[in-house]
Amino acid sequence: MTTTATGAGRPVITAWSAVSPFGIGRTAFAEGARERRSTVSALAEAGPRDDACTVPGFEVRAVLGKKGTRSMDRVTGLAVTAVGALLDDTERSRAVGTGEGAALALGTTTGSAQSMMDFTRDSLTGEQPFFVDPARFPNTVMNCAAGQSAIWYQLKGPNTTIAGGRAAGLHALNYSRRLLAAGRAQTVLCGAAEEYSTARAWLEHHSGDGAPGAPLGEGCAVFLVEPAAGEDGGQPVLAEILAVELGVVLRDDVAGSLTACLRGALRRSGVDLAEIAAVARSGAPGAEGDAEAAVVGELLAGVDAADLTQVALIGDTGAASAAFQTAALLAHAEDDRTVAGKVGLVTSVDRTGTVGCALLRLR
Prior knowledge:
The strands form 2 sheets. Strands 1, 2, 3, 6, 7, 8, 9, 10, 11, 12, 13 and 14 form a 12-stranded mixed beta sheet that branches. The protein has a two-stranded antiparallel sheet with strand order 4-5. The chain is built from 12 helices and 14 strands. By secondary structure, it is of the alpha/beta class. Helix 1 (26-35) crosses helix 12 (321-335). 36% of the residues lie in helices and 22% in strands.
C-alpha cells in the first residue's frame, strides 16, 4: 500500500475547478451538487444504452476557439478547459500555477478510447495503412491531454499522466504530494479526466459483469496543490491533505482491502472517526460498489457524516470519479461552514482491483 500522511509538511489545496455534466466551471459544479440535480439526458447516437451524463453543449472548438483545436479530441478539450478555468479563477492561481515550477499530474484510464479506435480503423479501411491524419496520432497516446494542457498554459514543470481507473484522481493526488516533497515542483495542478464516447460505452458494456449501473458520465476536475505556507503565508487554503492510501485487492476481498486502506489512513493521519463530517464514495457498479458501501457504512456507523456520493447525479465518470468526489467535498465545505476544521473522506474501488481513500481537513 502507498500512504501520504506526511505530518507537518502536509500539502494543501488552494483552488479548484471542474468541467462536469453540471456545466463548465467551479460555480456550475457547486450549484449542481448543492441542488442534487440529475444530469441524465438522452443520446442521439447509437450505443449500448440511450442515456448518458455529458457536459451540456460542450464542443471543443466552440469552447476553446479554432486555433490549435482542429485535431483536438474530447478528453483533451475537457482537460484543457478545466485547467484554464482554474487558472482564470484568480490572479493568484495563474501566478503560482504556471511557469517553471508548475507541474501537472492528470489521472486517466486509457486517455481517449474513441481516438484510439478511430485512428486504428482509418489505418485498416484507408486505401493504404499509412493514409491516416498524422495530426490525430497524438490523441491515441494517453498523455495527450496533460501534454496539451501544459502547452496551452505554460506549465513547465514535471508533466505526468497516471492510469488508475476510478482511483486515478487519488493516484494523481498521491503523486502530487511526492513531487512537492521531493522538491521537483513548487505547485502541482492535479486532477483526472474522462470523456463520454460510443467507444467507451461499448467497452464498458462488454467488460462489465452485467450488473445494471448508472449512465456513463464525463468531465474533468482539477486542483491546485501547494506546500503549506503556514498561518502567515496568505494562502487561500481550502483543504489540507491529511492522507492518501492506495492498495490492491487480494483474493477477491474488496471489503478487506478497502478496510485496510481506511484503517491505515486513519492511523497515520491521527484522525478520529468522530471528526469525519462528509464522505464521497465512488459508487462503482456491481459487487465492488456494494462492498464499498458496506465498508463505509460499517466504519461510519453512528457518525453524522453527509453522503456526497455523486454517481446518481453525474453518472459513472470513470477515471474522473475520485477527482469529482474530492470536488464535492470542497463544494460542500464552501456551502456549509459548520464543517470547517472537520474531515472529508473519499473512497474508491474499481473492478480492476484498485482501492483507495483520502482524508482531507476542510477549511
